[in-house]
Amino acid sequence: MADGYRQIVTDGLWHNNQGLVALLGLCPLLAVSNTLVNGLGLGLATTAVLALSNVSVSLIRNWVRPEIRLPVFVLIIASFVTTVELVMNAYFHDLYKTLGIFIPLIVTNCTIIGRAEAFASRNPVPRALVDGLAMGIGFTLVLIVLGGMRELIGQGTLFDGAQLMFGDIARSWRLSLGEDYPGMLIAILPPGAFMGLGLLIAFKHLIDRRLSRPRSTEVTGAETSAA
Amino acid sequence: MPDQQTTQLPVSPSAVPRRRGANTVAVLISGVLLGLFGVLGAGLVGISHDGTAERIAANQREALLQQLRVLVPADAIDNDMLSDVTEVAAPEQFGAPLTRVYRGRRAGQPVAVVLSPVVTQGYSGSIALIVAILADGRLAGVRVLAHHETPGLGDKIEIERTDWVLGFDGRALGDPPLSAWKVKRDGGVFDQFTGATVTPRAVVRGVKGALEYFNEHAEQLFAAPAIEEAAHG
């Protein structure tokens, strides 16, 4: 049983990462990853919705007839997204303003209905919950890395705007490459998002290839390393 | 495959061939179930709305109040600007059919108004401003509330990015002269940004429009009765 959970977690974080492998939810992924904090905020909101919707779908999986399962899933997801949106508006008002339209757009993130259909509707509640959390955290990590990359290259800072999420203490977390960093606009604009994601996917493939290579041949194999 | 470990989909009754009557029953059950989930979903949203509405309203009020306080210091006035509000219909200057005007007074005497023009000639879409004008016609300050300008270029109008917007402080319609209420490239006194002239040009135009409106209507603006706030939260 423990092995089953281990696989759910590694699938979510790595092997079937929704951002890097399944390539789902690209619209919010690309649009909101312009700073690390924005990425983290959207990632956590998505994770919350994913966990809640997976659990509810799993709870009702034996009652819902197959022919109405999709509308029911959509209803569930939409309700949870609205709830998360209201809670963020109430407790993280500034972050809510920064993320703007992308909170309601979590509804359209295919990851969520994808996991409901492919996993939660066929698995008991605990497994569905773990799957939702793992998939959500995997997606969040991609958002954080991509957001951090774009922020660092684009405006030469990290953790800019952390106070929106963590309060005034976080103002001092902001790292800067120096005030005279010229900035690189393309990293912040949409093309930078595509390039950054492309690089991340390539990097993941590189690591996978290294890992799958048998230990004994590693030394000789290194010469024919992948482009 | 990611989900090899999944268990089997529960066998549903609809998978078995059925007679006509049974079909109708199945459709009915599906309909009722769907309706039930609709009610549940709406209930969830309703409950969370009830639980958060008050806090959200307080947040919005606080955010607005902070903006107003930056422009009109709390010790300059002794009234609550958020409840001393009137509405004006001047779509030409303010870009909306009805615009709220917040008024600050001290001992009943007018001190300042805060106008919120929306200029539509930004580089990409409209730019929402708040413009605070002192009773003598000088600018207490200008801030950009919302915009869609290019990051790194047009967004220098934000106070978080550069001090550009502070260049309006203390200005009035005669200072600089009316003909110089433009960006430098157009022969005026306000800086533009390298690579972005359209954005500052639009902001200057919006501020100037607000000042012109104030000069013509100052008395009415202060004299108009306050509207009821409660309905807007």
Give structural notes.
The complex is a heterodimer of chains A (227) and B (233). Chain A is mainly α. Chain A has one domain (2-211). In chain A, 66% of the residues lie in helices and 2% in strands. Chain A is built from eleven helices and two strands, in the order αααααααβαβααα. Chain A has helices spanning 2-15, 26-32, 36-59, 69-91, 93-99, 110-118, 125-155, 163-166, 185-188, 190-212, 218-221, and strands at 157-158, 175-176. A two-stranded antiparallel sheet of chain A has the order 1-2. In chain A, helix 3 (36-59) packs across helix 4 (69-91) and helix 4 packs across helix 5. Chain A is globular. By secondary structure, chain B is of the alpha+beta class. Chain B folds into two domains: 18-71; 74-228, no CATH class. Chain B is 35% helix and 18% strand. Chain B contains three helices and six strands. In chain B, strands 1, 2, 3, 4, 5 and 6 form a six-stranded antiparallel beta sheet that branches. Chain B is elongated. The two termini of chain B are 52 Å apart. In chain B, 28% of the residues are buried. Classes of the chains: A mainly alpha (227), B alpha+beta (233).
Helix-strand blueprint:
The complex is a heterodimer of chains A (227) and B (233).
Chain A: H1 2-15, H2 26-32, H3 36-59, H4 69-91, H5 93-99, H6 110-118, H7 125-155, E1 157-158, H8 163-166, E2 175-176, H9 185-188, H10 190-212, H11 218-221
Antiparallel strand pairs in A: 1-2
Helix pairs in contact in A: 1-7, 3-4, 3-6, 3-7, 4-5, 4-6, 7-10
Chain B: H1 20-71, E1 85-88, H2 91-94, E2 99-106, E3 109-115, E4 118-122, E5 125-134, E6 139-146, H3 198-223
Antiparallel strand pairs in B: 1-2, 2-3, 3-5, 4-5, 5-6
Tell me the count of domains of chain A. 1
- Count all strands of chain A and give the number: 2
Characterize the main sheet of chain A. 2 strands, antiparallel
N-end to C-end Cα span of chain A:
39 Å
Inertia-based shape of chain B: elongated
pLDDT < 50 runs, ≥5 residues of chain A: 218-227
Which pair of chains has the greatest number of interface residues, and how are they split between the two chains? A-B, 44 and 37 residues
Give me the Rg of chain B, rounded: 27 Å
Instruction: Please state the average pLDDT score of chain A.
Output: 85
> What is the gyration radius of chain A calculated from CA atoms?
19 Å
Based on secondary structure, the structural category of chain A is mainly alpha
First and last CA, distance of chain B: 52 Å
By DSSP, the count of extended strands of chain B is: 6
The mean pLDDT of chain B is 83
Provide the low-confidence segments of chain B as ranges.
Answer: 1-7
What's the helical proportion of residues of chain B? 25-40%
How big a fraction of the residues of chain B is strand? 15-25%
